[in-house]
Amino acid sequence: MKFHYTLPEARTPVGSAAPALRWGVIGPGWVAERFVAAVQKNTRQIFQAVAGSSLDKAESFGRRFAIPSAYGSVEELVADSQVDVVYISTPHPTHYACALKAIRAGKHVLVEKPLAINAEQVRGLQEAAREHRVFLMEAMWTAFLPKFDVIRQVIEQGAIGEVRTIIADHGEFFEQDHRIMRPELAGGTLMDLGSYPVALATKLLGKPEQVLASGQTAPTGVNGQASIVLRHSGGNQSSLHTTLFSHTPGTAVIAGSEGYIFIDGMFYAPGNFHVYNNDKQKITYEQPKYSYDSLHYQAAHLATCVADGLLESPIRPIADSLLTMETLDQVRRELGIVFNDL
Prior knowledge:
By secondary structure, the protein is an alpha/beta fold. Helices cover 32% and strands 23% of the residues.
């Protein structure tokens, strides 16, 4: 039998369609390199300034990406009148302070995930952005990928019925000297890797009514792996796992009453997914796997939102970021994970 369903087209605009904004980069590291390269290649956005922990680092990054202004401090960059929007990719514990400085300077802000390191900080940024009338968004790139726009439409069209269960996994192996192993940087698998499965579950099934978690500590003291069960409204459940001890398949399942979506690993990145009905008939969405080029979609989305006069993303609103962080906070309490965030 044939699966009588046609996958919808992605509604994601091409990056070059977004109006140009002038960007400043705070934190010229590994992630910023890939973000800037993708945005420069695929959009009309302009990188105007960069600030690093030292002027030398900022100048080196600026030369590599033809960014005209380099600064040795956050304060100097956010004072630059030639910067419209700031992209923040510093270590997790500094996201809140850097974003707050940019907001108070009247800049629109895109912060790498996690937006902050606890829900209280997320609320603080949300309030500040509203007060200063600037756009604030978490750089959860998954939400802006064309494949996830198609997945959202598949669910909205009822192709798999009512969503009942989420199963998601994200694991990678890290050496002991990697920054994810450092407690002072809010390291551990939960915030870096685990935020992807938790964000998927809370987006699709909402605020959990119960959070259960079991974890293992890495030799450096950070959370090494965690298994998480969330019970949502109506008894729906999410079963999530994350680890920094091993590479795992990184797949996800969105299971409904009339079928399910199986997302190939790494589920949060560009790649394939398959829609099955209850007769096990399948239709497949195909896309080249894991391309950092796709980091540009979130920048183009932000620029379009700003041009439209919006202060939050309709795709990844701060309410979604807050729900993810509230859930991560609950998991931290279950596992006894403590950051320097009190």
